[in-house]
Amino acid sequence: MSICLMLHGIGPAPERVEPDERPYWISESTLAFVISEMRTQNVRLTLDDGNDSDARIVLPKLVEAGLTAVFFIPSDRIGTPGYVTEHDILELHQSGMEIASHGSAHLNWLKAGDAEIANDVMRSIERLTGIIKAPVRSVAIPYGYCDRRVLAVLRQIGIGRVYSSFRGPYADNAWLVRRDCITADMGSQEIRAIITRKPDAAEAALTFLRIWRHTGNAALWAA
Ligand SMILES: [Zn+2]
What total of structural domains would you count in the chain? Predict the structure, then answer.
């Protein structure tokens, strides 16, 4: 089992960021703490939304530490103010980072039709593949909003791995990965507690029920 962390923007949130999104912007010192923990713990790092801090702040720190992360980029935002450019994405890829899809328009897929979801994902994969000239296999679900229908669409169009916003440790070969979101209010003790958490039987049973309710197929999480 592994823990997968989810980060968003790093540094002070720029003015364009809506109030409800501000708690997801963490300080550079919190990022430094997460990276230092990654040196000793079995923890995987992901970054959502394609903020330009991915390239400006996160990439140099990961390269310096000899570590990697997965970057989920909503492709319609590429090159718009405050977000990564095509050049940034290529640099992330060439530095050994995984480039992955976060859809094109950062839609709520629960409100989208099957064809709209498939189109949103495939369009983003085409754009990203065109930039890095390498396959793009993983998707992170915008806002974490999903149900069995959304997951069935992602399965059907052949997505290799789906990153959710359900919390907790995940099996290393799972198709659907759980992630723990790091937010601005968390101190180092709380972050360390998340990273070092061992699956406990009661929590595992509750998570199983929650996943079953949302997806109707808890086996997705195991393989
Ligand atoms: Zn997002």
Answer: 1
Q: Read off the amino acid at residue 113.
A: G
Banded pLDDT at 223 (limits 50, 70, 90): very low
Question: Are the C-beta atoms of residues 188 and 31 closer than 8 Å to each other?
Answer: no
Ligand 1 centroid from CA 166, angstroms? 14
**C-alpha to C-alpha distance for 195 and 65, rounded to whole angstroms:** 18
Domain that holds residue 122: 3-221
Say yes or no to pLDDT of 170 above 60. Answer: yes
Q: What is the CATH number of the domain that holds 131?
A: 3.20.20.370
Q: Quick one: tokens of 205? A: 């049973």
Distance (angstroms) between ligand 1 centre and the Cα of 147 equals 17
pTM to 2 decimal places: 0.92
Ligand 1 centroid to Cα of residue 34, in Å, is 20
User: What separation in Å is there between the alpha carbon of 82 and the centre of ligand 1?
Assistant: 14
Dump pLDDT digits (tens) for 34-84: 999 999 998 999 999 999 999 999 999 999 999 999 999 999 999 999 999
CA of 73 to the centre of ligand 1 (A): 8
Residue 31 CA to ligand 1 centre (angstroms): 18
- 52 CA from centroid of ligand 1 (Å): 14
